[in-house]
Design a protein that fits this description.
With 634 residues, the chain is of the alpha/beta class. It has four domains: 52 residues, no CATH class; 321 residues, Vaccinia Virus protein VP39 (Rossmann fold, 3-Layer(aba) Sandwich), CATH 3.40.50; 88 residues, no CATH class; 123 residues, no CATH class. 32% of the residues lie in helices and 19% in strands. The protein is built from 21 helices and 25 strands. The strands form six sheets. A ten-stranded mixed beta sheet has the order 2-20-3-19-18-4-7-9-8-17, with helices on both faces. Helix 15 links the parallel strand 18 and strand 19.
């Protein structure tokens, strides 16, 4: 028996290895491109793809200074962790909502393992690059270190985050370097039918559109919504009063999208006035719609055929019908067509019922121009929560995000906003869940950006924007609970998720082995000490648990249970799919007790074996015999 079979694997404390996952996907699709040295042969890949490969030196695309560094940034894993902060949370143990105080680039990397392909909607309102916006630094090689210095978690001068002045020679490039890796990583988190909304103004909308075409694919562009953000204007405009912003919408895979429908409103329901029939109990009233297609469109021969009127007259369309022959006959048999005789002959209409075939009230298609929701509404939202104070300038209106949520998905989606600002997205999710008994969950990420000195926020006691984000969510939850107090619960209000877990970015709880450390006696001694006691000082079991959970590929709110086995604490994750034991003194009895639970995976602290190689080897064999597919130590 080799040493390899007697040693558990080491838990990989790095974030998801994106290049390796793409490499494995290529090998799955094209196994013939694997070389003897386990590399990729691109010449064979070209042969496999044939004429689909563009080998020319000149091609259409977008380039800017720093783009190559963006890819190195994307490929560089994060060694950070997210530390739980129950004292700053609401209903920490039960909620599935998250507010993460962090640099969003690091968080997007850390979420790759656990939220890959799970997010239905992303909404972001990034800096617009007006010259005064808060811009993340474009030296990403030290992103975590820069964040720690910035937030005072380490003793160093550190480079400061700041604004991006137009006098800088790389004004647009710095903004693109900030956005590219974040959008690239965000795309990985989307479900196949997921979408992303990005608010932007004229300053960078053309660059953002090209950026998204490259990352998401031009074919996955859905719409450029124009938001009329104000109903008035001022004399300060030099040429024209600018009343709009944009909200770009891209899909991860446009072929996987369902049609977009906004919920019906009372005014829309008034249109269904034409009549009622025997289907009224299940389908509601109906309105009549012409069966003949009147729009200019390509003629389809399968939609051109005669329909027999009540007197036997055969009706033929001037252009074509909307429906196929089979569907017309089916609906006709269900009394779904209405014939009318006029001076010019017969016309035929179909009944469009208020309630569709799936039992849902018919909504309306969203318009590309969003009107009736203004910036002033966003200010009013904040005043209503913060004692008539405007603690943050120009927040997006809650109604705007609610509209986008209604457009994009169903009632049980995960919604991500990694430029969270004041937390409008959290309020929109919580409000909408109340309105339609939804179970949407939010993940918000906000940098602890300092509030300006002598600002309204600073005078109110808020040191950072992240503090406002959390406080806004607390006040919204308190307000909604107050509104529901004493009301008869008809739609399961008690089951609604009104809470959030706070996490903050920090260095990994486990000190990494530094292969580049000096090889002299002092350097090696220091590294060996790290190997013996590699848990950072001041880190609690909860800190260790959530890092292992996240880096094992489980979402942070995954259901967990605390077990006691042979007098020791063991964490059961997702119904014993993973058992985590953080005890510093492991025993053979405990190993056997864990194995009897027949988990899929087990993670233990390496120091729990206290250098007992025989116990470790026995654990490997015991877990293997009980069907444990993965046993790792950290």
């Amino acid at each position: 028996m080799t040493k390899k079979t007697n040693e558990p694997e080491k838990l990989d404390l790095r974030s998801h290895d994106i290049p390796e996952s793409k490499r494995q996907e290529l090998l799955r699709l094209f196994p013939e491109i694997r070389t003897e040295g386990d590399k990729l042969d691109f010449e064979r890949l070209k042969l496999s793809l044939g004429e689909a490969v563009d080998a020319g030196k000149e091609r259409y695309g977008m380039n800017w200074p720093g783009k190559a560094e963006c890819f190195r940034t994307i490929q560089s894993p994060s060694l950070g962790t997210l530390r739980p902060c129950p004292d700053e949370s609401v209903n920490f143990d039960t909620t599935e909502n998250l507010i993460i105080e962090s640099d969003n680039l690091e968080v997007l990397k850390l979420l790759q393992k656990s939220y890959l392909g799970k997010v239905k909607m992303i909404y972001i309102d990034p800096p617009y690059n007006t010259g005064n916006d808060f811009i993340y630094p474009d030296n990403y090689t030290e992103s975590l270190q820069t964040y720690l210095e910035y937030t005072g978690q380490v003793d160093a001068e550190g480079r400061k985050f700041g604004t991006n002045a137009e006098t800088d020679g790389r004004f647009h490039s710095k903004w693109l370097n900030m956005m590219y890796p974040r959008l690239y990583l965000a795309r990985n988190l989307l479900r196949d039918d997921g979408v992303i909304f990005i608010s932007i103004d004229d300053q960078e909308v053309d660059n953002l559109r090209k950026l998204c075409n490259e990352i998401f694919g031009e074919v996955n562009f859905v719409e450029s919504f124009v938001w009329k953000k104000s109903y008035g204007g001022g004399a300060k405009e030099q040429f024209a009063v600018r009343q709009h912003e944009f909200c770009l919408l891209y899909a991860k895979n446009i072929d996987a999208l369902s049609e977009f429908w906004l919920p019906p409103d009372p005014d829309a329901e008034k249109k269904y006035y034409d009549g009622k029939d025997e289907h009224f109990a299940t389908r509601g009233p109906f309105r009549l719609k012409p069966l003949e297609a009147t729009k200019s469109m390509d003629r389809r021969e399968n939609l051109v055929f005669p329909i027999r009127a009540p007197d036997g007259t055969e009706l033929s369309p001037k252009r074509q019908w909307w429906w196929s022959r089979e569907r017309v006959h089916r609906v006709l048999a269900q009394n779904g067509l209405v014939f009318a005789k006029t001076d010019r002959g017969w016309t035929v209409s179909y009944k469009q019922y208020l309630i569709d075939e799936n039992g849902q009230k018919r909504g309306t298609k969203p318009f590309s121009i969003i009107d009736g929701i203004y910036t002033q509404h966003g200010t009013a939202d904040m005043r209503a929560l913060f004692d008539d104070e405007v603690v943050i300038q120009f927040p997006k209106p809650v109604a705007l995000i609610e509209r986008l949520l209604q457009v994009s998905g169903d009632k049980e989606d995960i919604v991500l906003d990694f430029f969270a600002g004041s937390g409008t997205t959290a309020q929109a999710v919580l409000n909408l869940n109340k309105q339609d008994a939804g179970a949407r969950r939010f993940i918000l990420v906000q940098l602890p950006e300092p509030c300006e000195e002598d600002s309204v926020a600073a005078r109110a006691g808020y040191k950072t924007i992240a503090e406002i984000t959390k406080e806004r969510a607390r006040r919204v939850i308190k307000q909604l609970n107050k509104e529901d107090a004493g009301k008869l619960d008809l739609i399961g209000a008690e089951k609604r998720d009104r809470g959030f877990r706070v996490f903050k970015l920090a260095e990994s709880n486990f000190k990494p082995w530094n292969a580049e450390a000096p090889k002299d006696a002092g350097g090696l001694t220091k590294q060996l000490e790290l190997h013996v006691d590699h848990i950072r000082e001041g880190r609690a079991q909860n800190d260790l648990f959530y890092e292992i959970l996240l880096k094992s590929g489980f979402p942070l709110p995954t259901a967990t249970e605390s077990l006691t086995l042979t007098g020791k604490a063991v964490h059961s994750v997702a119904g014993a799919a993973l058992l985590i034991c953080l005890e510093r003194e492991l025993t053979l009895e405990l190993v056997r007790a864990i194995a009897e639970k027949k988990p899929e995976r087990v993670v233990c602290l390496d120091e729990g074996f206290a250098g007992n190689d025989q116990l470790k080897a026995n654990a490997v064999q015991i877990f293997k015999n009980k069907g444990v597919t993965s046993f790792k130590t950290v």
